Amino acid sequence: MTKINIFSENIYEDWAIDQKACISIAKKILKFYLSQPEISSVCCLKDYDYDTISFDFLYCDSVKTHQINREYRDKDYPADIITFAIFADTPEDDRFVFDGEINLGEVIIALDKVIEEAEKKNVEKEYELAFLISHGIMHLLGFDHQTEEDYNFVIGLQNKALKAAKV
User: Fold this and answer.
1) CB 31 within 8 A of CB 166
2) pLDDT in tens, the chain (167 residues)
């Protein structure tokens, strides 16, 4: 059984999210994704020997994601989510597993954007947060959505993952 280490920090003062619940949801979602052959057979973890997967969540506001976008991604806009998929984005020859652990990277989520989007979609903000958590994990595993087909694949699996995690 693979151990999952998720580190979480919330620096957004206007919403004291239940970080323990978010970590639990993220673990369920990751386990679901890895149980799906269409993911496990092609994701960045394929062909690696590991016993631990780790990654981080940072919850902040859109001012912070705007700053990160400008500084690290040459993009001048605030984002609801930014994913630094360190393992997936590293060329295969340069990837490494240290003491049986793979660090997938970091997911940064702007909670003010989560609230805004939840209101637009008329869903609970906790559901929208879980949706972005699932989206970030897909990116950490190496999936993107540059085409409509890829987008539909990612969103379809996210919806299945949320249902499986009982979100």
Assistant:
1) no
2) 799 999 999 999 999 999 999 999 999 999 999 999 999 999 999 999 999 999 999 999 999 999 999 999 999 999 999 999 999 999 999 999 999 999 999 999 999 999 999 999 999 999 999 999 999 999 999 999 888 999 999 999 999 999 999 87
